[in-house]
């Protein structure tokens, strides 16, 4: 969709019978005009339908693309964005909804090249503007509606040809990942390429030119952040103090994230946000069921921002930790420390926001945190297990804030994507499994990627313990127990803890207590591992079940048991036997 198209469309013809009505032009659109066929046409109706004082805000703004129910609109500066997100939003969304005959919401992004002052700048000041103006704007290419397999190289090359663009001014395009051969490829630059990933992932798309600059850059955070160095490999970046602050899992990068139709939009938006934090879509909200990659994307944004902007302050936190931290801060009279921790950041990544439901005081605190960050153009990325409007026990004003930005969902992956995820997982974890086994596992585990990975680990661990090759018959045996036929019974943490305790001849108190005897530690870790694998509980929630342990203890337990399963037959057998017992009990309930 091009800019010219937008201008070409005329408002819907006026209908005489509507003349008595208030909001005349809108009513005409609603009741008479046929549904708009593209965003350009709908935008023309927006311009015609708004009173002049509101329309003035749209002079230098323009519609970019329509993805499902989200219309992306680019504006020249933060101030205009604020106006669109708050004052103009209801009218814009109403007219767009009427135009398309279905619910449409807007997401606003800042593209400084739309600022007429920039466009008129003398050539020597703005050399980079010459080329792009003759070309199509990356945001106009509507890449989300193209078949990635047919996508020409143009958008990416265009970036390459452009000399020197500051990241802050880089139009935060939502770009389609490049796929050349049907295999899923990462969208992010070679510098983030994981050397362990093998040649099949080593065809990174061309990079925006700015990433190759090593000159003084101004961050989107309003202060110089030193040079924007070529991004280091996300997973091999040394653990600096800031890295520790950010608390990012080194494995969760864009590089290790497999893109499929179920997560393409969320991924593309995440990349856009990471490339222009605070400028692109603020907040970005990612929602979807458990185990579909929300946390992975949040961490990937954090890594990528940190690799692009030296010194950027990124903080990842789950909503439960935020809540606990807040409660502790009140208890210990450390409110200002708490506020500094969450407000003095450039990017706040907040996971599982649904946990704030019903927690009035924490919501209040988060509301102020959100406002402080948003007003300072700091990026906020939120994940949730539901769309904001379904977070019924969240205060309206918070839900309303979430609607300001871009809302993207992640759906369960299709078979092709599940296979690609397994292939990638096998490569990164150095697990050997032939394609038919990967396909078999992917066909059996359909809705949760955490379970999918767990199944691969079980199969390869079983083969390694028995010194057998990983083949189809072996996979069938292992998965028969793991995935029973028929509907999935609901497993709870208390079932897992009860079964684990009785299997090891312990009590639940033992599992929750502080004893570090070897049997107890293993039993506790197995129970935590099974909670992770068989339930939808988050890491902090699992930690809470086990006597209020930290989420990092659960993470450690998960890793440890995965490793022990492939090294010790006894552990593998214990986990398998316990899984059977737990699933059996769940089926009886
Ligand atoms: N598209 C993907 N490519 C590669 N790995 C993925 C993808 N999606 C999810 N995963 C992996 O699946 C596992 C679960 O993902 P993650 O923890 O991000 O899910 P989630 O949606 O945050 O779940 P929850 O709501 O339970 O916290 C992780 O190991 C993650 O790396």
UniProtKB/TrEMBL annotation:
SUPFAM superfamilies, per database record: P-loop containing nucleoside triphosphate hydrolases, TrpR-like
Description of how the protein assembles with itself and partners: Oligomerizes as a right-handed, spiral filament on DNA at oriC.
Pfam families, per database record: Bac_DnaA (PF00308), Bac_DnaA_C (PF08299)
Biological source species: Kribbella karoonensis
Protein name per the record: Chromosomal replication initiator protein DnaA
Nucleotide-binding listed as a keyword: yes
Region entry Domain IV, binds dsDNA, spans: 464-589
Disordered as annotated region, ranges: 1-33, 115-171, 188-243
Chain sites annotated for binding ATP: 291, 293-295
UniProt region (Domain III, AAA+ region), positions on chain: 247-463
Compositionally biased region (Low complexity): 1-27, 118-171, 199-224
Subcellular location: Cytoplasm
Gene3D superfamilies, A to Z: 1.10.1750.10, 1.10.8.60, 3.30.300.180, P-loop containing nucleotide triphosphate hydrolases
InterPro entries listed in its UniProt record: AAA+_ATPase, Chromosome_initiator_DnaA, Chromosome_initiator_DnaA-like, Chromosome_initiator_DnaA_CS, DnaA_C, DnaA_dom, DnaA_N_sf, P-loop_NTPase
Location of the region described as Domain I, interacts with DnaA modulators in the Swiss-Prot/TrEMBL record: 1-190
This protein's record includes keyword DNA-binding: yes
Function: Plays an essential role in the initiation and regulation of chromosomal replication. ATP-DnaA binds to the origin of replication (oriC) to initiate formation of the DNA replication initiation complex once per cell cycle. Binds the DnaA box (a 9 base pair repeat at the origin) and separates the double-stranded (ds)DNA. Forms a right-handed helical filament on oriC DNA; dsDNA binds to the exterior of the filament while single-stranded (ss)DNA is stabiized in the filament's interior.
Location of the Chromosomal replication initiator DnaA C-terminal domain: 492-561
Free-text comment about domains: Domain I is involved in oligomerization and binding regulators, domain II is flexibile and of varying length in different bacteria, domain III forms the AAA+ region, while domain IV binds dsDNA.
Ranges of residues in domain AAA+ ATPase: 280-408
